[in-house]
């Protein structure tokens, strides 16, 4: 009888230990911090603190963002950005705070920091029409400051481990380099005269390579890099070019495809040449194209017009941001696009979940859950 009880308690102790170590492993696999770089697709409010024409700090932006009670936060959508959702799903304790926000101090930064800026791009000239914006070079300069702050908070050894093993570096950038630079009417004419598409894409890739090397030197190791979506199919391009709902602007999509091909090569190059780093490529082009073409399959009623701005000004509405005077659809969750440029929260949820758990069609060489588990 004593032996039976001994065996029982031994088994119980083993199960407790397995459970304990399993829980520790699960905690270790969670995302501790997310450092986000890019443009308005993931800006969480940095542009609120800039004198810029690129802002989303007025209603109805943020109308479905529960954390703010439906008040605008500076996010260019009705709810969460794709980076917000990725962080939530991977166990990040709280949203990465905008770098320029006054409360982005002390231990707050240990959950991550968002450096993204509406209008920002890879090239420093991109987005100049907005007057102010944070380009990638400036965003990385700001991360360098954050990196030193983390050293002070944790000590250099623990900070290094925190950044290299427990943090995710998300970069969604490139669209503005085409939309608000190379393809911009009038403003871009000088650029297009001096650079053909090949030369312009070369310039982007060469700048981006240097920027990613800089992040690596600052001990970033787990990267997810988004390619550029089907720019010719977003409502803005369809409206200003007076296209039918099913048509897209060929030049914009060709430029995006050309850049994406070069970006794929760059990611492979970095994975081969930067020891200890893993660069994951998010195929946002195909993901968004799938939503646009097969929107009915995902429960949407339209992928050709944004929810905010429908019926307000015809062609002119294509370049007016979402503001309090814009018309607003009543079924926001059934629109792929929130406004003429940015996906709705409903679309962002679908995109994020594919990046977290999807296969190599949409994210490679591994998905984000596998990347965090490394």
Automatic annotation (TrEMBL):
Keyword DNA repair recorded: no
Subcellular location: Secreted
GO cellular component: extracellular region
Keyword terms, alphabetized: Hydrolase, Lipid degradation, Lipid metabolism, Secreted, Signal
Principal cellular location given in the protein's record: secreted
A GO MF term: hydrolase activity, acting on ester bonds
GO biological process, one term: lipid catabolic process
PANTHER family xrefs: GDSL-LIKE LIPASE/ACYLHYDROLASE-RELATED (PTHR45650), OS07G0668300 PROTEIN (PTHR45650:SF90)
Name of the protein described by the UniProt record: GDSL esterase/lipase
Organism: Glycine soja
């Amino acid at each position: 009888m004593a032996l039976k009880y001994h065996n029982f308690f031994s088994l119980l102790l083993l199960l407790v230990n397995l459970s304990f170590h399993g829980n520790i492993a699960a905690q270790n696999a969670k995302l501790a911090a997310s450092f986000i770089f890019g443009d308005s697709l993931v800006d969480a409010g940095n542009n609120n603190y800039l004198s810029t024409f690129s802002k989303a700090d007025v209603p109805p932006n943020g109308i479905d963002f529960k954390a703010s009670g439906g008040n605008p936060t500076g996010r260019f959508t009705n709810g969460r950005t794709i980076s917000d959702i990725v962080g939530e799903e991977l166990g990040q304790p709280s949203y990465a705070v905008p770098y320029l926000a006054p409360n982005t101090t002390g231990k707050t930064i240990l959950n991550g920091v968002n450096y993204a800026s509406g209008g920002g791009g890879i090239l420093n000239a991109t987005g100049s029409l907005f007057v102010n914006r944070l380009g990638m070079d400036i965003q990385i300069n700001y991360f360098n400051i954050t990196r030193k702050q983390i050293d002070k908070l944790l000590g250099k050894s623990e900070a290094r481990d925190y950044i290299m093993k427990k943090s995710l570096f998300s970069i969604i950038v490139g669209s503005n380099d085409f939309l608000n630079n190379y393809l911009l009417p009038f403003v871009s004419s000088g650029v297009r005269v001096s650079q053909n598409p090949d030369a312009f894409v070369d310039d982007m890739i060469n700048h981006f390579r240097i920027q990613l090397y800089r992040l690596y030197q600052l001990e970033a190791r787990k990267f997810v890099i988004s390619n550029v979506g089907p720019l010719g199919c977003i409502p803005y391009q369809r409206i200003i070019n007076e296209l039918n709902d099913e048509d897209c602007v060929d030049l914009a999509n060709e430029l995006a495809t050309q850049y994406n091909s070069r970006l794929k090569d760059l990611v492979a190059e970095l994975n081969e040449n930067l020891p200890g780093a893993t660069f994951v490529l998010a195929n946002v082009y195909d993901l968004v194209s799938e939503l646009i073409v097969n929107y009915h399959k995902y429960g949407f009623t339209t992928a050709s017009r944004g929810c905010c701005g429908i019926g307000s000004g015809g062609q002119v509405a294509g370049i007016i941001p979402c503001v309090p005077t814009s018309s607003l659809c009543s079924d926001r969750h059934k629109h792929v696009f929130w406004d003429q440029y940015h996906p709705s929260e409903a679309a962002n949820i679908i995109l994020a979940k594919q990046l977290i758990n999807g296969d190599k069609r949409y994210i490679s060489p591994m998905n984000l859950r596998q990347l965090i588990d490394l």
